[in-house]
Amino acid sequence: MNLILQIWRQENAQTKGKIIEYPVQDISPDMSFLEMLDILNRQLITNGDIPVAFDHDCREGICGSCSLYINGEAHGPDRRVTTCQLHMRKFKDGDTIFIEPFRADAFPVIKDLVVDRSAFDRIQHAGGFISVNTSGNTQDGNSIPISKHDADEAMDAATCIGCGACVASCKNSSAMLFVGAKVSQYALLPQGQIEAPDRVQNMVAQMDLEGFGNCTNTGACEVECPKGISLENIARMNRELIKASIKS
Amino acid sequence: MSGILNSSIGRKIAMALSAFFLMFFILQHFAINILSVVNPETFNEVSHFMGTNPLVQFALQPILIFGVIFHFVMGFVLEFKNKSSRSVNYARNNGNANSSWVSRNMIYSGGFILVFLIIHFIDFWIPELNIKYVVGDSSGLLEDGSGYRYFEELQHKFVPLWRVVLYCVGFIFLSLHLLHGFNSAFQSVGANNKYTQSLKGLGIAYAILIPLGFIVIALFHFFNNSH
Amino acid sequence: MALDSKIPEGPLADKWTNHKNTIDLVNPANKRLLDVIVVGTGLAGGSAAATLAELGYNVKAFCFQDSPRRAHSIAAQGGINAAKNYQGDGDSTYRLFYDTVKGGDYRSREANVHRLAEVSTNIIDQCVAQGVPFARDYGGLLDNRSFGGVLVSRTFYAKGQTGQQLLLGAYSAMNRQIGRGKIKMYNRHEMLDVVVVDGKARGIIARNLVTGEIERHSAHAVVLGSGGYGNVFYLSTNAMGSNVTAAWKAHKRGAYFANPCYTQIHPTCIPVSGDHQSKLTLMSESLRNDGRIWVPKNIEDAKAIQNRQLKPVDLEEDKRDYFLERRYPAFGNLVPRDVASRAAKERCDAGFGVNKTGEAVFLDFAAAIVRYGKEKAHVKGLNEEDDSLIQILGKEVVKSKYGNLFQMYEKIVDENPYETPMMIYPAVHYTMGGIWVDYNLQTTIPGLYAIGEANFSEHGANRLGASALMQGLADGYFVLPYTIGNYLSKDIRTGPISTDSIEFEEAETKVKREIKHFINNNGTKPVDYFHKRLGKIMWNKCGMARNEKDLKEAIEEISTLRDEFYRDVRVPGSENEFNEELAKAGRVADFLELGELFAKDALVREESAGGHFREEYQTAEGEAKRRKEFQFVSAWEYKGAPKDAELHKEKLVYENIEVKERSYK
How far is CA C464 from CA A94, A160, B97, C155, in A? Predict the structure, then answer.
């Protein structure tokens, strides 16, 4: 199939960007979206142009590198997939496809479609861990039984891949789904209880410092999240923060 | 506890708490107003009580005013902050794919409600203050002293068509605001559990029935009077 | 230089403990004076960086991704082995050791493997303490599943995302140290050379991938946790960015490269769909717990299925060939990966493949659905004869076990695996070979260490499922942090290492020269063009089955291709900016050298062992034929061109395990 791509081009963080149109031909419906962009890039390089920069790595939906706001949605029109898992069979011959970076001031553009998501890392530095040193003398893994329900729920929260689709699709550029997921994972497990009050307060403080917007519960993040992280995690984070504030 | 209001989540919770308060206020406001349809006499008595009871006047009323102002100011501040967290907008954004129109446009429904409230204040509340505290008549009686003035004043207000239309539109916006706001407030304070689904139903019922009730009251008086 | 593996004396089971008790330690105050560079932040690098920082060293960690959390360990699905024996099925440290050595076709180092088995249980405890949400049973205890090549259930898992959860655990430990300032993290940085001063590794040259700046970083020791080189095949289950550059540059600076030809071809990957394919997707080995692998018995049926005239579900049971169950009754569908892959290739080569290119076999869950459905019906007291009910119940169970994998398959292939069998084909997945290290995980360059997939030591010629995660974390959490102290204890008076030395100067100039070459080269073809061609040579001539003629050709072809690459590659843009093509060019340049050494190694190894199958050396039944005289590690010393590399042999001695014919029948 043949497509018209409208792609955001921006040389670097300092310059202003704009949308530029590129036609691509003979795209197979079995291709992934990024393979389609590979073809465009090969074409650009061969013609002596600069290829479109985009983040990608594992191409199997788990590393969280790939981003892209495709036709007005984070990771494109399909559900529960990342851009690298999105296949061209979701589009029709002749379609025009808008491709933009994940936009938020907390995610500055590095080049074209590549953004800097290190704000997420810094939120994790503030408290996304359980303080346990590596010693080989930690207690046996089975010494604290954890109910299957809690373990599964913690796992569901922990499946977050940190791609930033929640921020990109939120009208407020809020990072609460991301932070909520991490806070929830530890809040649901007995190991996480001791540091729980500090953790939620520090992570939320860092989140605010990074310039993410506030959550207004539109639920867009949950719909666009490629891993289906539930809004319940945000509610849990809110509870955790209330608890922590009362305690301290 | 002090730090919580400085955090984004703290503000969100504060929004939710003021929303709860306002939703409760609307409920009681509705409960009193509906009396004007069912039983004008009780309506008069309750109105008089509310209008003259010192606890209501000097404790609850200031809290209400504070709640309203807080909810609006905070709403606008947050909206401004949220907007400014994305300075370059998407060329194409398909918001309908992942969220409801009402949830994304609380600022507009809220803004219209504010306009409505201002008119409502000028219409009801300022004359009321004038009578009670400037003129100094706290009797609540009609000028001829034949009874309480509240019901008659209410009827009188709903004679002009423009006001009835304004009220109806205002309540439609209130309904839109509540359709997202009711459940959003619960989510904000962390209530997301097995009851969430039932709560959602309750929220929708509240968001539709209460504003609809207000509209019915307005229309009731409008049609009753013009006949 | 003679190879010294530095294996401690004493009985196998006491070696590690004795070693730990006798090596030198660095006192806490002195640790503050020592810097360590860690390249790569996957399971090995991430866990090492965190642990070294916990101990008090100043760590500088580097990754080319935008966050340490994105290292490709994240994609490991199935699980991690540990000899906990929670299931009471007879597991033990010795048995894990035994299975690993046997699984590696008796080509790994006994002492290293035993140490791995010893610390395996600590890993689980550590990860649980970190908040890794391992799967639990209804009693709240840790759950296990079974993996290929073993007869016990010792694999711990977190849904189909075990690698992700373990990596996020290591990442969280790193985050704590980054927050404390003990780790300085360099994201989007690529290591382009090791700097050796007075014979010791004293730093690296790295390129900032955002600004293009070439940076010098010094330290008292350098640790490479930079992963494997499967992408030399172009198509593999590795991430697009996974590369050999760090390891290869170390090799060129004097680190021996061991067993490059030992490559694991994973049997259960989604088949190639077309020429546009950029990478392959793995379906977890755990699927072989319940899926049955088959092709049609008759060639006509195979042809009909290939042409889509016959639906696989319509083919009668007796016309199907469950070839793994037929050939290996004891292990059935759970034979080790090399065996399963070769068996699938054998059937496809014979014309029984089931997709349009004939390069796929079926992985069928129909029987599992019925079995689970009946079980569930029995438990619930429902009618076990009601077929449609059984189907519904069975699919529910299968969904709860493998739901995310099935969903992934459906998204990629556009077929529903609950209704029609999956199609799978082997793909390059893991490289057992890597930088040669001694027992202390030190390379032949003093002060340079290699951990995780980047080194060679534990898996021999074939790695068992769920052992990569175990090895990466064992190296990073429990081995390297001890052994590196022994080396660093001699460096407490050295003081900070200057980056102004002539060695740093020379390394930087060399790196800049290569970059300049790419940027100024007026070539015509993109980097991928050459990478793809390299991949084709590798897959066709150094893939699942190799022979002398092909390997000799491969060496020549790769060498020619490399010349062509340097002549004709086009790298757009400049060096002072974010330039992915430039980064790719450097990586492919190194693959083009490694590939040649790979083929040479395969040529020299005149036997079949694990992932290395030489057609000349097979039994009458087509099984791999090992040769006693090749019971050694090939460690290659760089001598200017890959094909001129000099071979050093490390004899492998088995004192605690009987070297037997490896049989899974």
Answer: 48, 28, 44, 11
The residue with tokens 């009681």 is: B28
Distance CA B41, CA B46 (A): 9
Catalytic residue among C337, C347, C546, C614: C337
Which residue, C340, C359, C341, is CA-closest to C349? Answer: C359
Q: Which residues, at least 6 apart from C371, have a Cβ–Cβ distance to it below 8 Å?
A: C394
Residue with tokens 């069912």: B38
Distance from C-alpha of B70 to C-alpha of C285, rounded to nearest angstrom: 58
Contact indicator for A112, A9 with CB cutoff of 8 Å: yes
**Quick check: helix, strand or coil at residue B225?**
helix
Helix boundaries (H) for C381-467: 387-413
Query: Edge-to-edge strand order for the sheet containing C422-431?
Result: C263-269, C422-431, C361-364, C292-296, C320-321
C195 forms beta bridges with C203
Strands C646-651 and C632-637: antiparallel
- Evaluated on CA atoms A226, A232, A235, A239, the torsion sign reads negative
Mutant choice from A238, A239, A240, A242 vs B, greatest count of B C-beta within 10 A:
A238
Q: Are C265 and C286 in contact (CB under 8 A)?
A: no
Torsion of CA C439, C444, C448, C453, to 10 degrees: -60
Residue at token pair 């107003």: B33
Nearest CB partner across the interface for B188, out of A69, A217, A220: A217
Q: What are the angstrom distances between the C-alpha of B126 and each of B47, B134, C473?
A: 16, 10, 72
Q: List the domains of chain A with CATH numbers.
A: 3-110 (3.10.20.30), 117-131+145-247 (1.10.1060.10)
Interface ipTM = 0.98
Q: Which domains does chain C have, with CATH numbers?
A: 12-262+432-491 (3.50.50.60), 267-428 (3.90.700.10), 509-627 (1.20.58.100)
Buried b (16+ CB within 10 A) or exposed e, B197-217: eebeeebeebbeebbebbbbb
Q: CATH classification of B15-81+105-226, choosing from 3.40.50.11810, 3.40.50.300, 1.20.1300.10, 1.10.3720.10?
A: 1.20.1300.10
Nearest CB partner across the interface for C179, out of A78, A80, A126: A126
- Give pLDDT, residue C1: 66
Pair A207, A42: CB distance under 8 Å = no
Q: Could you read off the pLDDT of C442-453 as tens digits, one per residue? A: 999 999 999 999
Chain A contact for B180 (CB, 8 A cutoff): yes
Q: Does B77 touch chain A (CB under 8 A)?
A: no
- Position B3 pLDDT exceeds 80: no
With contact defined as beta carbons under 8 Å apart, do A107 and A115 qualify? yes
Q: What pLDDT digit, counting tens, does each position of A5-47 carry? A: 999 999 999 999 999 999 999 999 999 999 999 999 999 999 9
A84 C-beta neighbours (distance < 10 Å), count: 27
Q: Which residue of A has its CA nearest to C157?
A: A155
What DSSP line would sit under B27-93, residue for residue?
A: HHHHHHHHHHHH-HHHHHHHHHHHHH-HHIIIIIHHHHHHHHHHHHHHHHHHHHHHHHT--SPPSS-
- Contacts of residue C535, Cβ cutoff 8 Å, sequence gap at least 6: C232, C233, C234, C235
Place of tokens 């994609």: C75
How far apart CA A140 and CA A146 sit, in angstroms, is 13
pLDDT, one tens digit per residue, over C46-100 is 999 999 999 999 999 999 999 999 999 999 988 999 999 999 999 999 999 999 9
Q: Give catalytic status of residue C337 as yes or no.
A: yes
Task: Give, as one character, the DSSP assignment of residue C663.
Answer: -
- Tell me the C-alpha distance between C422 and C403, whole Å: 13
